[in-house]
Every structure is written in C-alpha cells, then in structure tokens.
Specification:
3 strands; globular
Length: 481
C-alpha cells in the first residue's frame, strides 16, 4: 500500500512538475502566431486543453504550496495578479469573457511559468532548457526555411479570416513567412538565435554543432529579411548582453573590466555593421534572383515588374515618414485612457471595447482615431490596463529582479563555466524580450511565444539565485563538486 502511494505520488510529481505544461504552453503560443494554423478549430480545443491542464497544475501547487512558496519575488507577482483581479471586477461589463481569459493566462504565466519548485535542481533546469530549446529551435528553423523559400520564389498571398487580413510569404518589402506578424516573428527568431548560440557552446558532437550553425545562419538571414527594426535592436542587445556576461570576471580589476566592456561594445558595433551589410546584400540578392528568373522565363517578366518595387526590402529610415509606424500616436492616446481610470485601469482586454467611453474625444462619434487593441509598449499597457497600482507593483518587481541578478552574478567566481553561460543565456533572452516589449505588446497580457519564454527564463534566473543563497553564495563551488 505504501509503495502504491509512493508510486502515485511520483507520477503526480512528474505530471505536475511544470515541464509538460511549459512545453505544451510554448507549442500553443508558437502555433497561435502561425498564419496557416491559428484559425483552425483544433486550436481552440488545444488552447482549452492547455488552460485546463495548467489550472490542474496550479491546483496541485496550491495543495503543495510549501514547495513553491519560497520563490523569490512571489509576493510581487501575487500582488500584481490581485491588482489585475480588482481591475477585472471594477470593469465587468465591457468585455467580461475575454477579460476573464486574459486574467487566466496571466495567472498561469506568473504562477506556473515563473514559479519553480524548491526541490528542482539547477541540473534539472538545464535539462528543461534543452527540451524547450530543441522545440523552439526546430520549429523556428522550419519557419525560417519556409520564409526564405517564399523570398526566393517571390511567393506572397493575402487572405481574409474573421474580418482580418492575413499576410503570408514575402510581401510589402517584409518577410512574414508563416508568422501572423513580422515583428513578433523576428523577435522569436532572435530568441532562437540566442538558444542556438548557447547550445553550440555546450554540445560536443560535431553533427550537432553543424545543425546549430545552420540554425544560426537561417535565423540571422530571416531577421534581416523581416525588415523589422524591433528585431534588429533585439538581436543587437541580446548578443551584446550575452557577450558581456560570458566575458566578464568578478575578480577582474577595474581596468580589465573596462577593457571587457569596451570589447562588448565593439561586438555591438560589429553586429550592427553586419546587420546593415546583410540588408544591402540580401536586397541585392533578391533583385538578382528576380532578374535571373525573368531572364530564364519571359512569362515572369510582367509579374516581377509589378512586384519589384513592392517586394524589395523596405527602407529602414524612410524620409518624411513616421519611424514609429503610428506608435507615437497610439502612445499619446494613452493619456485619455489613463485620465479616465488612473488608479486601477480599464483591463487590457477592454482597450478596444471601452475606447468610446474612456476616450470619447478620440474614439467617440466625433472622434477620428481608429480603435486599436494594444499600446505596443509594456509600461503604457500596464498603466492603462491596471493603472498606477499595477505599474508601481511591476516597477518594484523590476527593481527587485535587477538587484537579485546583480547579487547572483557577483557570486560567480569562475570564468567561462557552464553556469555563467546559463545565466548569460537567461539574461540575454530576457533583455531581447524586454526590448521587444518597448515597441510591441509583449511579455504581459498576450500569449506570444516570447511571453512564454520570458517568464520561464525569469523563473530559472530566480531559481539559480535561490539555490545560490541557500549555499551561502558558493553556487559554483557546490555545483562543481
């Protein structure tokens, strides 16, 4: 009887360890931004399945709360969710069903993806990262190959689904590929690039290194063709952060540290230069491919004549145009929303529905501004969605995380160790996602693959700090025994 009980307990721990849920949630997020899949009826069933499984996991954690209660920063995520619940209750009536959905997913992100069991070791985290990385890299590589195929073949199409225009392939001077949005696609590809870079340094088999090098190349070329300024900035920041954290030594003198930081800055300049050169090369390559096809098939001449101007890579700095692509106008409109509900906000899923009531001068009968469903900036999204209360909690949490990461990094005493690379991976992915969240609605309130990876990685970073604190700041020494 005792053995049977222990067996059931072991099975429950394996099912509710969090790994299965994280992989399931990640796959759901990836497919939700796939232009060929997201609208299929099966996706709704899949989403319900993940939500129910996540809720079951959450109940298991509440029952066994002692195994999770010591997660650093849990008080901030709990307060943020409490603030979100209060906002939801205050604004019932606008878009109640979708608001409840949003609150559910945010709860799963902050309490399931972020929170990790006290019993989970760093070695188990490394195994979990490898599983997630394989899924992410494999999927992204397929997306990249298809995307580049659409560039070579000049394939693009637009279809209408539920009143929305869905773009596929290479259109408007941007590589959409299989993604529903080129910016989110570019940021996801940057994450895949960083994961591939990290695994390349950890694997020993040559054929795996070749696969990862191929993934790095595909990811880089895809980001270039995406013509996403957000993607370019994310890639530069993520690579530089990774380079700095891997190269710096805690026992370096100030002079040596300065030299290493300068080296990292040179890396940033190099990456920026390569990106710019890559844009020029790929633009030239695209036209050469088009010319070659026209030369060898006269029937294509008229098609490419029509498409050449439309499908060349878009100008990154168009003269006389708004570089923010309308973001500044959207950000300014946040003032009207904030004034209407400054303390607790209006709830993220109510932005579009509540616009005529909250900002009548812009979205009312006399208003001329088109309604939108997000502000494309995490701080503004929080300020409007959960008011000053939510923003203050989030900023306090941000400061706490920075302090925790600085303290942890200061305790790493060995150069070029596996743990330092792991920490560099975590922080570089977080940095890339946060940069994305400055220009896109990401990290909070949305089910993007970037959001899923952000909260998972943040939880891993906090777990490393928690283990280090238990061992008196001797993480490396204990780990290498």
């Amino acid at each position: 009887m005792v053995e049977k009980t222990n067996t059931l307990s072991s099975v429950a721990k394996n099912i509710f360890s969090g790994t299965v849920f994280k992989v399931s949630y990640l796959v759901l997020a990836l497919l939700s931004f796939n232009a060929y899949v997201f609208y299929l009826p099966a996706m709704k069933l899949f989403a319900w399945g993940v939500a129910i499984f996540g809720s079951a996991n959450l109940i298991y954690r509440l029952i066994n709360y002692k195994d999770y209660i010591k997660t650093p920063g849990l008080i901030f995520t709990t307060l943020f969710l409490a603030s979100g619940l209060l906002t939801f209750m205050i604004n019932i009536g606008y878009n109640t069903y979708e608001s409840a959905q949003g609150l559910t997913w945010t709860t799963l992100q902050l309490l399931m993806l972020y929170v990790i069991s006290n019993e989970q070791s760093v070695k188990e985290i490394e195994k979990e990262i490898k599983i997630l990385a394989v899924v992410f890299i494999a999927y992204t590589s397929i997306i990249c190959m298809f995307g580049l195929y659409t560039v070579v073949t000049n394939y693009n199409e637009k279809i209408q689904i539920a009143g929305k225009t869905i773009v596929r392939g290479f259109s408007g001077g941007r590589l959409w590929g299989m993604y529903t949005d080129p910016n989110y696609g570019a940021v996801s590809t940057v994450i895949s690039f960083i994961l591939s870079l990290h695994l390349y340094q950890t694997v020993k088999k040559i054929f795996l290194k070749i696969i990862l090098i191929s993934s790095l190349g595909l990811s880089f070329i895809y980001v270039v063709f995406s013509a996403s300024r957000t993607g370019y900035i994310c890639m530069m920041v993520a690579i530089v952060v990774y380079a700095i954290l891997v190269s710096l030594k805690t026992d370096d003198s100030k002079k040596k540290r300065l030299k290493r930081i300068l080296s990292a800055i040179l890396v940033a300049i190099f990456v920026s230069t390569v990106l710019l050169v890559g844009i020029l090369i790929t633009k030239g390559a695209y036209f050469k491919i088009a010319d070659f096809k026209v030369t060898h098939d006269n029937s294509l001449g008229q098609e490419y004549e029509q498409q050449e101007g439309k499908n060349s890579l878009r100008d990154m700095f168009p003269e006389g145009k708004d570089l923010s692509n309308g973001r500044i106008k959207i950000w300014k409109s946040a003032i009207s929303f904030f004034k209407s509900s400054p303390v607790f906000g209006i709830d993220f899923r109510n932005i579009q529905a509540a616009a005529p009531d909250k900002a009548p001068e812009l979205f009312g009968p006399q208003g001329k501004q088109i309604r939108f469903d997000a502000f494309h900036n995490i701080l503004i999204d929080i300020l409007v969605s959960q008011g000053l209360v939510g923003l203050i909690i989030f900023l306090a949490f941000t400061v706490f995380v920075i302090i925790v990461f600085v303290r942890f990094y200061s305790n790493l005493n060995f150069e070029d160790t596996q743990s330092k690379r792991l920490f560099a991976l975590i922080v570089s992915v977080l940095s890339g996602c946060l940069v994305s969240a400055m220009f896109l609605s990401d990290v909070l309130y949305v089910n993007t693959q970037n959001t899923v990876m952000f909260w998972i990685m943040l939880g891993y970073g906090m777990k490393m700090f928690s283990d280090d604190r238990k061992k008196g700041g001797l993480f490396e020494k204990e780990r290498l025994k």
